[in-house]
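Raw record, unedited: 4Fe-4S ferredoxin
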Amino acid sequence: MTALAPQVPTVRLNVTADQGGVPRLRSSELLALAQVCGADDCGLVSIEDPALQEDAPFVTKAFPATRTLLALVGRMHREPVRSPARSIANLEFHASGHELDEVARRIVRRLEDAGIRALNPAMAFPMEMDDFPQRAWVVSHKRVAEAAGLGRMGIHRSLIHPRFGSFVLLNTLLVAAEVDEVGAPLDYNPCLSCKLCVAACPVGALKPDGYFDFSACLNHNYQQFMGGFVNFVEDVAESRSAADYRAKHSYAETVTRWQSLSYGPNYNAAYCIAVCPAGEDVIGPYRADKAQHLRAIVDPLKNKTEPVYVVRGSDAADHVARRFPHKRIRFVRQSAHASSVKGFLVGMPLSFQPGKAGDLSAVYHFAFTGREAAQATVVIRNQRIAVSDGYVDRPDLRITIDGSKWVRFLNREVSLVRLLTTGSLRLWGSPRLLAAFGRCFPS
């Protein structure tokens, strides 16, 4: 038998046009359409919303006609996500994600039938990877969902829906029509500040003070794909024999990577979501017995013996050794490789290691010459980093170098000694400050 497409109840769309000829829809009808097509919740945001200022150029590049963004929420099943068996959790992520993509396609089909142009970017993957590790997504689903009033981001940096909690996936439709009413951000945050996500994170990416170590999360959770896959390919290319390769990657790791490529990206941990008790539908058992929540949900994830992927000399490596000595530390290279000067400047705050900065307090001026000429100021102080365009303040160290050579140095294609001895790298100030700078970014 031929599989039949899901039958969607009829929702009448009354399409009008404004004075400029742009189609106009009733918000209530568009939201009703999203729900009958399978969205568990939805909301609307104008492309002109100030909260989307960063996203708007990327959205309009992908679909210049965009006037309204329709945010979609898909609910995940909680117990699979909470399971220490990552195959079960990953199946739930992928099944729920594919379902949400199909919901978006059904809505686009119905809008097209009504004469309304619309576009549905992917819920997660695939992405626009041309400039990776710079921005690869067309639109930030979390930012749109927040602006639409569908939740707020918690300490774990995931959106917390007021009803479904952290157990949601998000998507966004770009619609070439105006609507008569848009949503507004929630006036409260469902996050409980319980910090169970901080306690459960195997690499310490989430800090008690709210700081997020992006690189720690990237290196461990995304090790089987994205930048971790690049390192894997380079390891294969550099291996002299099968034995040499096996010294770098275990049999199980190679099979796991194949599974990730065959069945969808395998996330090594989503413990921050799994342990989160926020949300009206979720919080009841936690309020009734917090100790039982810890025993049944948090402890199995913390106690699991598993490989944890960290960069040698990083804050994450120290965290695993201190908090999870029973887990197997697996040293890897940094997953996010700078491929341009812009990528280096954008990536610094994401890969900065506060613990390695210690008491360093310095102002660095970078002068990049060549095709990617740029000037930038980096201030490291009180275990925090700030990166600015141009020169700000008086520098403690000034670094001048051709941008392409700096990128080659970052990717270990040329040594620092060679750059200094050939005059390709010029320093004004103490070389010790350059060494201190390097310790903040172990690779």
